[in-house]
Each structure stands twice: as C-alpha cells, then as structure tokens.
Amino acid sequence: MKMTRLLRKMLLLLFLGGTSVLSYGQQNEMIIITQQPLPYGYNELEPIISAETLILHYGKHLKSYIDNVNKIIKDDTEKYGTNLESIVKNSTGKLYNNAAQAWNHNFYFDTFSPKDKAQHKPSGNLAEAIDHQWGNFDRFKKSFAQVANDIFGSGWVWLVKKNNGSLEILGESNAGNILKDEDVTPLLGIDVWEHAYYIDYQNRRAEHINALWDIIDWKKVEERYNAALNNGK
Ligand SMILES: [Fe+2]
Fold first, then answer.
1. How far does residue 29's CA lie from ligand 1's centre (Å)?
2. Taking the CB of residue 160, how many other CB atoms lie within 10 A of it?
3. Which residues are involved in binding Mn(2+) (predicted)?
4. The pLDDT value given to residue 75
C-alpha cells in the first residue's frame, strides 16, 4: 500500500514538477490571467499538506480555473477587465465561478509558509483586534474552525475586516467570493473543498483545519490587515 502511494507520488512529481505551469505560458498565446508562482516548494508544507495534494491542488485545480478564465474571456477584456479582481466583480455564471476560484486559490496559497518559517500567532494591531473581538486567539481559532466545519459540502471560510473596524468570520459555499462585498477586506481564506484535504485526511476536515494552524503565516495576514488600515478601510 505504501509502495503504491509512493509510486503514485513519484509519477505525479515527474509529470507535473516544474513543467506544466511553465509550458502553459509558452503554448497558449491567449493568456490574460497568469498563474502566480507557489511561494514555497511542493514538499515544504509536509506533513500538514502533502506534496501530492499541493501538486494536484496548485498544478491541476488552480491551473484549470485559470485556463478556463482565459478561454472564456478571450477578446472580452473591455467588458471584464484584465485582472482577476475585476473579472470576479464583473462576471456571472461559469466565468464568475472560475475567476472566483482562481482568485480564492491565489489568496489561499499565499497564506502559508513552512512550519519553521511561519509566524504562528498574530501580533500588533491584528492581535489586539482579535482579542477585542473573541477574547483571545484560542477562542478565535475555535470559532474559525467551527464555521469551517459547519460548511455543508464545498466552500471557503474567511476572516475579514469590515469597514467599520470589526472582524468577522464568514462561510461561503462552492466558489463563494467576498470581493463583491465592498464592506469587507479579506484577511485569511481557507479552502474546505475536499480536494484540499482528502488525500491526506480523507473525510476528517476538522483534523485538517486544526493542523493548518502550524503553517498559516500570520505575518502575511497582518500585512493585509495593516494595508487595509493604511487604505482607510
Ligand atoms: Fe481548492
């Protein structure tokens, strides 16, 4: 059983490792949206998220969303704009679903750092805001996990800053994207689609969410929070 999994992982690494994303840009001239680089190596989040999961999630799922956006908008950039944020805000249906998923995943993948490099707790302004809202960081984590675990089926859980200064945890189904809500700034977004955890945790979503605290990099979350403050939001 272990050999089968190892062999499958090796084949995936050979097939995807460093080739599929790069070759996409060389073969398709209709690129409007490009896939941003993964900010860590495929195996650097192990054992919390395996290389096998990352290779499929980043190399197949995210790539597919971006490919679909490029196929659908083609010459309609005047209508939708040329970046994911404007496409999400101006689209509906299949284009919205793919653009929203692409934007969500870019945000999600840029949330983690390897365990030995991640800042494991918020500090400064954000730590104060979390303590003010939930009492302490552990109580925030419990509330966040509860929303994540309560989402029925596929979706996303978000920590957002509202323009009135308060923080809130929001659950969204499927490709739910919060960019359309001008009243909130996303700070942290976690994917609870099964493809994000099923290889490593099977149906144990709560265990997966609990493990993620070791690789969520609060330095990145804080940068988003402070940028919102500086922008008057
Ligand atoms: Fe995903």
1. 26
2. 20
3. 57, 105, 191, 195
4. 74
57 labeled binding residue: yes
Average pLDDT, the chain: 89
208 assigned binding-site residue: no
Enter the CATH code of domain 124-230.
3.55.40.20
Q: List the structure tokens of 200.
A: 């490593």
Average pLDDT over residues 142-161: 97
Q: Judge whether 105 is annotated as a binding position.
A: yes
155 forms beta bridges with 173
How close is the Cα of 153 to the center of ligand 1, in Å?
A: 13
Compute the distance from residue 21 Cα to the ligand 1 centre, in Å.
17
Give pLDDT tens digits for 90-112: 999 999 999 999 999 999 999 99
Handedness of CA 67, 64, 37, 24 (dihedral sign): negative
Peptide bond just before 114 cis, omega within 30 deg: no
Per-domain boundaries in the chain:
2-109, 124-230
